[in-house]
Amino acid sequence: MLFNSLTFIVFFAVVLILHNLPVSWRTKKVQLLIASYLFYAAWNPPFVLLLWLSTVVDWSVAKRLYQTDNVAGRRLLLAISLGVNLGVLAFFKYGQFLLENFISAAAMLGINYKAPDWNIILPVGISFYTFQTLSYTLDIYLRRSKPSKSLLDFSLFVTFFPQLVAGPIVRPTQLLPQFATPRRTTQKALNWGLLLITLGLFQKIVVADGLLAPVSDKVFGASALLNPVDAWLGTLAFAGQIFADFSGYTTIAIGVACALGFSLPDNFRYPYAAIGFSDFWKRWHISLSSWLRDYLYIPLGGNRKGAARTRINLMLTMLLGGLWHGASWTFVAWGALHGSFLVAERWLRARFGGAPLWQTFSGQLMLGLLTFALVNIAWVFFRAESFEGAGQLLQAMLLFATDGQKILSSVYMLQAACTVSLLVTYHWFMRERRLEDLVAKASPLALGNAWGVALFLIVITQGGSDAFIYFQF
């Protein structure tokens, strides 16, 4: 069930009505849990069993973990949780990838192995809810929190439908306490939630699908070498598309939760105005980057064990972050590039970070635009279907080949250039601001007009039923 569909609008309206009936808080939570299962079952009903498996295993393991002081016993219990969750994730998401690489390795050794077809459907959102349930078990193992006393609350934490399939990845301390006390819709929360839903739909339908996806798809679908202008515009279009698509989803998720009386954390803070890659990862997919920091980078030693170990930890974290996004070596290359950028940034900051130039606005702007350019180079590997396709685009973008074909019409070129320019400008304008403050300062007339225009553009834009990009992760 897509957020950008009439089916979801009807579903959400029914959930909203039921949630505000004069019934007990426990009944409302049961209604939300059933709604969450129905929401997920709309894609493929049998995969609800995976949610149940994750819920039962982590609920049971966490209770035992909290009661056990024996080190070996605690490690065994943690291994059970990790084994089940990561095992299911590995089977469904990485089985085909592992099989293909095994066949390639066997062929290199002269072994002609033919495997049966791997006809396994990837459960939508499996990477998101796997990391979310793992954070519950890991927090209890690390003595950061106590297990929930209510199986109903924990089940709802695992399956809460607004952020179930594409985040944000919510920590137990962020969401579980909200289920402890009654939550209801207020007029203020409903208005803000509906505004966020409209903004998210505008990002997804109008910006991502309507303005940028056609340009991005044409460039990344080309088989021939392109000229540098087309290559750059197609990559910039994808940069805008993936932000508007993913940010659109999480904005809708936050808005839906808000309308029901719940609060979800921000997942984006204007990342295309980032100054450096440390700043970028504090602004892009914040729930994943903070998860990787707290449960992987810091346990590996973080930056506490010397410069060499810090570089290794950064690379390992970003390599696994790339692999989290997809079972392909191109995603690993994307993660490796970001890891390399982070390592290089630390080295450069240590030697030149105190130079007066970098403290000025012009210096900060130059660094920000350089960051954005390098982010786009990395996006090539994220979007390309193969290294060959990525290599062709990069040849043109880096001016190693300038005689490629021109495939973008003037309309597409103008569409991509204007949309991305406006998006990046907006990010810089909002870099140190909050949307809530901007809305609070706007006059009711201006806000109403902007809201009306956004709704009108959503309605008239074609292609609004496309799935969200991050559903495949």
Automatic annotation (TrEMBL):
<feature type="transmembrane region" description="Helical">
    <location>
        <begin position="189"/>
        <end position="207"/>
    </location>
</feature>
<feature type="transmembrane region" description="Helical">
    <location>
        <begin position="449"/>
        <end position="471"/>
    </location>
</feature>
<dbReference type="InterPro" id="IPR004299">
    <property type="entry name" value="MBOAT_fam"/>
</dbReference>
<keyword id="KW-0808">Transferase</keyword>
<keyword id="KW-0997">Cell inner membrane</keyword>
<feature type="transmembrane region" description="Helical">
    <location>
        <begin position="357"/>
        <end position="382"/>
    </location>
</feature>
<feature type="transmembrane region" description="Helical">
    <location>
        <begin position="407"/>
        <end position="429"/>
    </location>
</feature>
<feature type="transmembrane region" description="Helical">
    <location>
        <begin position="314"/>
        <end position="337"/>
    </location>
</feature>
<comment type="similarity">
    <text>Belongs to the membrane-bound acyltransferase family.</text>
</comment>
<keyword id="KW-1133">Transmembrane helix</keyword>
<feature type="transmembrane region" description="Helical">
    <location>
        <begin position="120"/>
        <end position="138"/>
    </location>
</feature>
<dbReference type="InterPro" id="IPR051085">
    <property type="entry name" value="MB_O-acyltransferase"/>
</dbReference>
<feature type="transmembrane region" description="Helical">
    <location>
        <begin position="32"/>
        <end position="53"/>
    </location>
</feature>
<keyword id="KW-1003">Cell membrane</keyword>
<protein>
    <recommendedName>
        <fullName>Probable alginate O-acetylase</fullName>
        <ecNumber>2.3.1.-</ecNumber>
    </recommendedName>
</protein>
<feature type="transmembrane region" description="Helical">
    <location>
        <begin position="73"/>
        <end position="92"/>
    </location>
</feature>
<feature type="transmembrane region" description="Helical">
    <location>
        <begin position="246"/>
        <end position="264"/>
    </location>
</feature>
<dbReference type="Pfam" id="PF03062">
    <property type="entry name" value="MBOAT"/>
</dbReference>
<comment type="pathway">
    <text>Glycan biosynthesis; alginate biosynthesis.</text>
</comment>
<keyword id="KW-0012">Acyltransferase</keyword>
<dbReference type="InterPro" id="IPR024194">
    <property type="entry name" value="Ac/AlaTfrase_AlgI/DltB"/>
</dbReference>
<keyword id="KW-0016">Alginate biosynthesis</keyword>
<keyword id="KW-0472">Membrane</keyword>
<feature type="transmembrane region" description="Helical">
    <location>
        <begin position="6"/>
        <end position="25"/>
    </location>
</feature>
<dbReference type="InterPro" id="IPR028362">
    <property type="entry name" value="AlgI"/>
</dbReference>
<keyword id="KW-0812">Transmembrane</keyword>
